[in-house]
Amino acid sequence: MALTREQMAQRVARELKDGYYVNLGIGIPTLVANYVPEGIDVMLQSENGLLGMGAFPTDAEVDADMINAGKQTVTARAGASIFDSAESFAMIRGGHVDLTVLGAFEVDVQGNIASWMIPGKLVKGMGGAMDLVAGADNIIVTMTHASKDGESKLLDSCTLPLTGAGCIRKVLTDLAYLEIEGGAFILRERAPGVSVEEIVTKTAGRLIVPEHVPEMSF
Amino acid sequence: MAGLDKRVYSYEDALAGLTDGMTVLAGGFGLCGIPENLIGEIRRRGVRDLTVVSNNCGVDGFGLGVLLEDRQIRKMIASYVGENALFEQQLLNGELEVELTPQGTLAEKLRAGGAGIPAFFTATGYGTPVAEGKEVREFDGRQYILERAITGDFAIVKGWKADHFGNVIYRHTAQNFNPLAATAGRITVVEVEEIVAPGELDPAQIHTPGIYVNRVIQGSFEKRIEKRTVRA
């Protein structure tokens, strides 16, 4: 069975380490905050200028001056700090964020990522995504392995305009966890009940399958 | 408005000198921390062919979105747009030009502009459509692109409190691009919720020192929420 969005978030959350500063993108990455393992404390960075994002507010706590990068109302946790956008991106571009999780349309074996623009469709903008992928060492891309039409999103070379070049090393899809190394995807884990064959079929880019590919457990 | 006293008492005076074709830098992220009343005054004045620099372009009927209604914006420099239908329509019609800029690059362009730095190298955007036509240089084995700073004829800024001298503090995440825009305007106009006497703000807590600010005005604000999200 392919992973659910929640299981994907759960799997990503296992990469969190105590003391990490983490930036979570919109969509599945946002859900990671719900699965921070017990005994681990992380600070969530929101690129509009908040380090230490807390839970959503109660009705009474809603404050128009307190939002996250997805423009949702949020709270600040104890120990949070708030700053301007240049400071926020100094953290991101200066490589101070320990883990960045974001979605994508395509990833390729060179670590290129395309996530913001589909030619012919209206382009809304890259927001902070180009800064995040250029600035972080440790990035996990979360996306479905293939499109709804069955087209693989793991390619030898991205077909869409890039968000960043050569910056992705880890990809979690609904079928597998893969690393990118030496011009290939390396299959590290597979979703419960998903066969190596299925992953091979749905991976268009060069794929290395180690002898033993453990199954994820939840 | 005399000497160090930056106070003005009408929005008309706040934007005196704003004319067609100027570049306006606007603070705000989404609808958070936007200079609502100064945007309203731009609309009232009917100036056209503006270049507007702002992270976003408001929504239909609120924020910078209202400047689209009478086609006052010729060019928008932003990181994320399209939260409004009118924007899409004018973009597709070719009535509006858009320069999409990565959010961190946009913030840094304003910071550099305000700090007298004409350009800077950044890894952001290298190898992407953003890099087209830009100088590339390698430092320590990594590729960077040259980005130009931004300055504007006017900066319109939303603060929380200011004193007579234009020292400003912002509230929570309504800070965002505001202090950056404030540094990069030839004329910087700040509207705030409360103007207090000099000495009432803690000097160590000032976000925007008054040297950057030319005019300050007290207003009242709707502070519309774009995505009200609550927990049970």
Automatic annotation (TrEMBL), chain A:
The keyword Repressor does not apply. Its EC number is 2.8.3.6. Pathway: Aromatic compound metabolism; beta-ketoadipate pathway; acetyl-CoA and succinyl-CoA from 3-oxoadipate: step 1/2. It is an enzyme of class 2 (transferase). Pfam families: CoA_trans. The keyword Transferase applies. SMART domains: CoA_trans. PANTHER family: KETOACID-COENZYME A TRANSFERASE (PTHR13707), SUCCINYL-COA:3-KETOACID COENZYME A TRANSFERASE SUBUNIT B-RELATED (PTHR13707:SF57). This is 3-oxoadipate CoA-transferase. It comes from Pseudomonas cuatrocienegasensis.
TrEMBL record, chain B:
It comes from the Bacteria. Pathway: Aromatic compound metabolism; beta-ketoadipate pathway; acetyl-CoA and succinyl-CoA from 3-oxoadipate: step 1/2. PANTHER family: ACETATE COA-TRANSFERASE SUBUNIT ALPHA (PTHR13707:SF60), KETOACID-COENZYME A TRANSFERASE (PTHR13707). It holds the Pfam family CoA_trans. Its EC number is 2.8.3.6. It comes from Pseudomonas cuatrocienegasensis. This is 3-oxoadipate CoA-transferase. The keyword Ligase does not apply. The lineage of its organism: Bacteria, Pseudomonadati, Pseudomonadota, Gammaproteobacteria, Pseudomonadales. Keywords: Transferase. It is an enzyme of class 2 (transferase). It catalyses: 3-oxoadipate + succinyl-CoA = 3-oxoadipyl-CoA + succinate. InterPro entries: 3-oxoacid_CoA-transf_A, CoA_trans_fam_I, CoA_transf_BS, NagB/RpiA_transferase-like. The keyword Transferase applies. Belongs to the 3-oxoacid CoA-transferase subunit A family.
